[in-house]
Design goal:
Layout: H1 7-20, H2 23-29, E1 30-38, E2 41-44, H3 46-57, E3 60-71, E4 74-83, E5 89-98, E6 101-109, H4 112-121
Parallel strand pairs: 1-6
Antiparallel strand pairs: 1-2, 3-4, 4-5, 5-6
Helix pairs in contact: 1-2
Length: 122
């Protein structure tokens, strides 16, 4: 018997895997043609999306979820992104689920702290 995860469960799996650096689990959550658009860039397809998540994962320390709201095939997660290069960054992530996978992701936050932190690293 195949069980399809809800939008809430997929969002939770996505963030848990990303925070743990478990990119194989993340790959299993994302649709092959996942479409990502965020403050720091865009990605088309699972390989580009994983590359972006791995890149930010290099400075990721913790994801502190404040609230997750899900309805039907949509989930929004509001969280503080804790990194080694910037103060915690309040972030909103919206996901659309199609055929049991994350197919579309939109992310927004104020990038100034992260950009300044990246600049200091260089």
């Amino acid at each position: 018997m195949t069980t399809t995860k809800s939008a809430r469960e997929l969002a939770e799996a996505y963030f848990t895997a990303w925070e743990a650096g478990d990119f194989e689990t993340l790959r299993g959550v994302l649709a092959e043609d996942v479409d990502f658009a965020g403050t720091l860039g865009t990605a088309s397809g699972v390989e580009e999306a994983l590359a972006g998540l791995k890149g930010l994962g290099q400075v990721l320390e913790k994801i502190e979820v404040k609230v997750r709201v899900a309805e039907g095939d949509e989930a929004i997660t509001w969280f503080d992104l804790h990194t080694s290069v910037a103060p915690p960054t309040p972030t909103a992530n919206w996901m659309h689920i199609r055929d049991g996978k994350v197919a579309r992701i939109r992310v927004t936050f104020d990038p100034r702290g992260l950009l300044a932190g990246f600049e200091r690293q260089n």
